[in-house]
Design brief:
Length: 415
């Protein structure tokens, strides 16, 4: 029979990869707690409308990447492609806004129908932080500082650069939009088909294109800076000033836009050159219009999401689990004794790998393969003498240990 394969763009997290993921989420959770961000979780699927309008019909996500389906009850459902819209839905349906400001940390799988390649999958994982209800630039600064500190704690901050831009307030954005339409219309023939469509709906999005020709034309486009009104300019200056105050280095990138429709003011990414084209490890920004767009009262918000698979490729290998003790029973009486002893040792928090079958040589080979710290041999002879054979697998030394001393001897060995 044909061996079943995973769906393209999905992958199994084998133990080493799972450890990397856990290290990333646990580090992020701990650092987020230092900033007062508490963990929550929302469902993996939502009604399609939760994502479609907020993210934007012209965004890559909504136009071609969502996993959407009609369920058996006829509801239009989408597997979440990002966290923010679902989280805002939760904030509104659970009536949490009265407690604003809200600070949330979450993580989990996301789903996007993309062309799989290094650092790009169809099921991938994000960690995500959101700060809802604060209009002041302090929120932008703290949320960026939190991202920076997580990267530092993971040991990867030094190979990332924080890129920073402002998209201005809605008024500045509209003025800039007009300027872009004029500019890109003059160079229409050089744009990709996708970007020509973007030009009508949301020209800013052309900057987000991965097509070489679009990128070339984008480079010479008018800069946002020239269209920012005084309020937007001042807001951005305060964000930059706060980052300077905290000694967080950044690089201004006037071409940085976010892939989703709802961003204004601050936009930022932590980017690495170590992962080829998929270099963005954290992307985020301010989304003051989103809560209102989703049916709530006008409420500011800012947040970011990090790609766990991309971070997993950057961090050093996390320490493995503690080395176990291999219990090697010999004969039926030994097997009964070992079964009980294994549980007693686990009561004392000693990790135990119980040999299930095979002759002595085969069980010892397994003990070595799993990296056991020591092997404990129990057969009829040992039981009769009230001892167990203890072999230190590092030194090779072997001795008989009285059963009532075994627990403490093993605890010191693995401790
Ligand atoms: P990109 O420009 O690489 O497509 P994006 O702008 O679509 O990224 P966001 O929506 O901002 O990405 O998601 C935040 C982070 O999630 C990204 O910076 C990246 O690290 C990660 N990410 C996004 N899409 C994928 C994917 N398909 N596979 C793996 N990680 C991803
Ligand atoms: Mg994308």
């Amino acid at each position: 029979m044909r061996i079943l394969q995973p769906v393209r763009g999905t992958q199994d997290l084998l133990p080493e990869a799972a450890r990397r993921h856990r290290r990333i989420t646990e580090t992020a959770r701990e650092v987020a707690a230092l900033y007062g961000f508490g963990e929550i979780a929302t469902p993996i699927f939502e009604f399609t409308e939760v994502f479609a309008r907020p993210i934007g019909e012209t965004s890559d996500i909504v136009s071609k990447e969502m996993y959407s389906f009609v369920d058996r009850g006829g509801d239009e459902i989408t597997l979440r492609p990002e966290y923010t819209a679902g989280l805002v839905r939760a904030v509104l349906s659970d009536g949490l806004l009265q407690n604003a400001p809200l600070k949330f940390f979450c993580h989990g799988p996301m789903f996007r129908y993309e062309r799989p390649q290094k650092g790009r999958f169809r099921q991938f994982h994000q960690i995500d932080v959101e700060l809802i209800g604060v209009a002041q630039p302090q929120a932008d600064i703290e949320v960026i500082a939190l991202g920076s500190r997580i990267l530092e704690a993971l040991g990867v901050r030094h190979n990332t650069v924080l890129e920073l831009n402002t998209l201005g307030d809605p008024e500045s954005r509209a003025a800039y939009r007009d300027a872009l339409v004029t500019y890109f219309s003059r160079r229409l023939s050089e744009l990709s088909e996708d970007s020509r469509r973007r030009l009508e709906r949301n020209p800013l999005r052309i900057f987000d294109s991965k097509e070489e020709s679009d990128r070339r034309v984008s480079l010479e486009a008018p800069a946002f800076g020239d269209y920012l009104n005084a309020g937007s300019r001042d807001f951005f200056a305060q964000v930059c000033d706060g980052l300077d105050l905290l000694g967080i280095p950044y690089r201004l990138n006037p071409r940085l836009v976010r892939g989703l429709d709802y961003y204004i003011h601050t936009a930022f990414e932590f980017v690495t050159s170590d992962l080829g084209a998929q270099g963005t490890v954290i992307g985020g920004g301010r989304y003051d219009g989103l809560v209102e767009m989703m049916g709530g009262p006008a409420t500011p918000g800012i947040g970011w999401a990090a790609g766990v698979e991309r971070l997993a490729m950057l961090i050093p290998e996390p320490a493995g689990p503690p080395r176990p003790i291999a219990l090697v029973p010999v004969g039926p009486a030994g097997e009964r004794a070992a079964l009980r002893l294994a549980e007693e040792l686990r009561d004392a928090a000693v990790p135990v790998d119980l040999g299930y079958s095979g002759n002595l040589a085969r069980r010892m080979r397994r003990a070595n393969r799993i990296g056991a710290r020591a092997a404990v041999l129990i057969g009829d002879d040992e039981i009769a003498r009230g001892v167990a054979g203890l072999r230190d697998l590092d030194s090779g030394a072997q001795s008989d240990v009285p059963l009532d001393e075994l627990r403490s001897r093993l605890a010191t060995l693995v401790g």
